[in-house]
Amino acid sequence: MAVELQISMIYAGLLALLYFALSVAVIRLRWRDRVGIGTGQSKDLEVATRIHANFAEYVPLLLLLLVLMELSGASATLLHGLGGLLFIARICHALGLRMSIGPSWARTVGVLGTFIVLLVEAGYMLGYAVGLGL
After folding, report:
1. Which terminus of the chain has fewer CB atoms gathered within 10 Å of its CB, N or C?
2. Cα separation of 70 and 128, whole Å?
3. φ/ψ (deg, to 5) at 113
4. Fold of the CATH domain 6-131
5. Radius of gyration of the chain (CA)
């Protein structure tokens, strides 16, 4: 029996494409600056690797929670809202760090959006588990 995860799959695919773009940006800078490991003296490469790493630190867990929510029967509206917010937040985070390594509106939107998704998903998971009497 196949389990349908159409909504999670949409956002997993979109986020995978974004991860690919972030990876290519790092590779391009490594070639340009001739840096095999680490970031050398390149500030551009340092920023690009942090953008990439931050994505890798947050997105897998948030996607896993989205899949679990879909499996538990969460509404399509909630799933699309969280998936869409996560995708937009990760784009904003990357753009914001490219604009400035300090505070920027885009980085703030990225961080807040990511944290909102994280907290809503965590709350849903806990509420669902408590609702089941676990």
Report:
1. N
2. 12
3. -60, -45
4. Four Helix Bundle (Hemerythrin (Met), subunit A) (1.20.120)
5. 17
Q: Residue 3's closest CA among 70, 50, 102, 89?
A: 70
Contact 59, 118 (CB under 8 A): no
Residues in the chain: 134
**Domain positions in the chain:** 6-131
Query: Burial, 111: exposed, middle or buried (Cβ in 10 Å; 0-12, 13-18, 19+)?
Result: middle
